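Task: encode each sequence below as structure tokens.

Item 1
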Amino acid sequence: MQLRNTVIALIIAVGHSAAAQAGAHTSPTTRKIDSLLARMTLEEKLGQLNLLSFDDRSTPAQLDLVRRGLVGGFLNLTGATATREAQHVAVAESRLRIPLLLGYDVIHGYRTTFPIPLAEASTWDPAAAQAAAHVAAVEAAAAGVNWTFAPMVDIARDPRWGRIAEGSGEDPYLGSVMAAARVRGFQGADLHAADAVLATAKHFAAYGGAEGGRDYNTVDVSERTLRETYLPPFRAAVDAGAGSIMTSFNEIAGLPSTANRWLVTTLLRGEWKFRGMVVSDWTSIDELRAHGVAGSRAEAGRLALEAGVDMDMVSRIYLDDLPAVVRAGRIPVATVDAAVRRVLQAKVALGLFDDPYHGATVERERATSLAPQHRELARRVAREAIVLLKNDTNLIPLDT
């Protein structure tokens, strides 16, 4: 009997030791996120996946959602005064005090305007593109923006497509170099820094390959063309450390990107080892119904979440329609938790739990906005972007 008790005691001791060692090897970030997840209700978890929009200032109804822990972030809220107000509500008046992601389309400058990305690409100067993105990050971060929906890295070969100006053109190599440079410029060496913003490579994938140059149109390409032409800039952005990816509106071979598990999970997260966050484009989850792949809002939300899309931009489907689906057992709680974990990891990476305002103040916003050195850089990049077309041999049929 004494020997049996000794053996049991040894087993218990070994178990406690293993658990202690496992805990010791768990990072502080993981422990923090684990603690938050353990305390969150299902609605609060889905709230972290809810990305809403408004113009200039938050409304009382939106701030009430923040107080209830039902918003993970906002887009189109800018200015240190307005962003600090929203962040204060999140970290001082909500139950779990989780800060907000605050996103904005910082495409070619924030207050200081740089040449469009297509023109920047014509410089063939990735250092200039990186410097321009850094200036944009400095000004945006000072105004409270901590997340940019840029760079757009779509390869486009049809000039009829209306968004060709936002990317780097038709060449996968140049597009890849510029994508990596812009990611480094936006994020810097340390996302905790007050002059860094989280970058988003968009639109994943092949958005620029829309048939006939018609926006939102279908894309019908082989996997080889996808990998050789449209995906390289995204891979370059991922390798450069991009913190987030935005899915595209289009279908690829009949399946919308926002519901494409092979694209978002198998390829992006599995093959490429992407560990960041994936966000939908504007209402693209709800648009799965228009594509004909979902018969209801709830079904659209289930398809997107299971494909690997973490944040729902504007549709409010995750927040409003998925609680019942999860409780009915049609979506595992573990799937929700994985998405929430990635959103929280982005907030930790930005240092928002240490400084939810990310260094944004009215004074800093004034000091950085349109700073002389920023305007001088914009002029230099603009000069580099000028392209002189010479038709000395009359190769192009132009009247000169």
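Item 2
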Amino acid sequence: MADVDVDDSCEKEREKCGGVDDGDDECAVAGSRVHGGGEPGESLKRLRLYSNNWTTMLMARSPEGKGLRRPVPGKRLLTVTFSKITQHQRTDGLWVWSVTGNPLPSQNSSVPLFSCACDDCPDSTCETASKNACANHWLSLTCPQCYTVAYKEDNGEEQYWRGCFEEDSSQMSCKIENLEYKLALAIECCTGQLCNSDRRPQIPHEEPYSEHNMQEFWPIVIAVVVPIVIVSMLIGIISLSCRHFHKRRMDALLVQERRLLDEDGLRVQHVGESTLQELLDHSCTSGSGSGLPQLVQRTVAKQVCLVECIGKGRYGEVWRGRYHDEDVAVKIFSSRDEPSWSRETEIYNMCLLRHENILGYYGSDMTSRHSCTQLWLITHYHPYGSLYDFLQKTTLDYEQMLSLVHSAAAGLSHLHTEIIGNRGKPAIAHRDMKTKNILVKTNMTCCIGDLGLAVIHRQQENVLDLGHNQKVGTKRYMAPELLAETLNPDFFDSFKCVDVYAFGLVVWEVARRSGEYAEEYKPPFYECVSSDPSFEDMKKVVVIDQTRPVIPNRWSSDLLMSQMSKLMKECWAQNPKARLPILRVKKTLFQLLNSWQLQRKEDRNLKIENLEKSV
């Protein structure tokens, strides 16, 4: 065993070398002259060196042990006792001694020194006075604590890692509390010789949604829900206040209205809420029986109970309602479609339209429902609905087909005909003929409705009333002159020709669903345009290509269907002047219907006679 002491003159030699070890004997420190005691396997008892980091690695220029030096400069005097030295030769020709041992505290240090269990050290221990001692073998007096870290692998297996801390690291790491549910990690620090060898920090095993989670969750829920509830309550309070104010206002108007009516000697009992418009529109008649008082028409909505919605269209909704224990149809217009409602109401009120093939009319009303203004048109109710809906789900025999198209022609003929007299009727062109605007009655006849686009003509006054509604008819049913924009709007017969063209398409739709080999329902030009064709698409098909709906070949071998085909072609002729007047169409269909009914009657009589003969 060798005892090696280096006196303080080495520090002066270090300063003379600029703090860098150049390998010369004069500048070597910390055992630069070790004779005999530096052999491999031999122990060094005591070694003094200048250093702020201790090293367990000493290097030499030759295997004889001459020129021993340390590779890192030092700043202060420390004393260490090493217990063992081993050597090996580097590629640059230097011999290296790896020295292990326990450091001894210097005279200038008050930090206790001890060993810690280490999982990354060659001999499973490290010194608390070392800076990263297990990894780089540098020695320091700034590591006062040992540590044990517990963590979980992905498969749930617990693992432990032990070592020693630097002082600055231990100040931060050792004071961190275990993170409970956030991370499966625990750290425990200690002070003492091998104090961390048997320590097992406990990893928390709390569920992800524990009471702690809920304590953090509820404040978030409250922060989100409470403002929503408060805003909703404010909106509700404001709505109730507005409704209450509106009701008080309507009650005041009702009192004023009743006072005015009492002054005129006529009182009418209202049901439900009234409107200012009702007050302005009310008028009284002398009771001569010339017509219903306007006052009764303006209150009809208060006596109708809506039952169910049976359809929706471009102008609004159609409801089935109850009026005086009868079913009625209520067409509800939105306020933006007031021109259509006003036009249809005007036509029904001023024209004599009572006809079995014109939709029956009860009255019109402007009412308030759910704080919204609604425009009601109340008519007869027909459970089969529109001809369009009826053809979607029903096939027809020839007699039903003829009955439907003949009745529709009769209704259109009534519109086109002017009746001159004291209570006469002007001529009316529908301008929107299609299966959706024709209703099917329970006796398998049709009636025409939806007069919102109608044109009125009075021959005596030579006045053509187009109304104020700027909307046009359905593009699929538009005549060629409408699509080509060659129609003369000052000539009433032009509009009647447009109706006849559209009626020809309606006859084609009904005929396709009739007979023993009825085909699937399809709208006109279904093979040429989309379900919602544009104006340009229809113009190309009808005007430029002069296309018409396809007539099946089987119709040519059937006498009745061939006659129906001829009638269709005469209705949808390209030239408006070549089209039949609707009165002529009506008469032709009536003849076909009568002929078919007579033939069926003769067939039935013949069958009865044959049965009687056989008996």
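Check on item 2: The domain at 302-380 is CATH 3.30.200.20 (Phosphorylase Kinase; domain 1). Residues 1-111, 130-142, 261-297 have pLDDT under 50 and may be disordered.
End of task.
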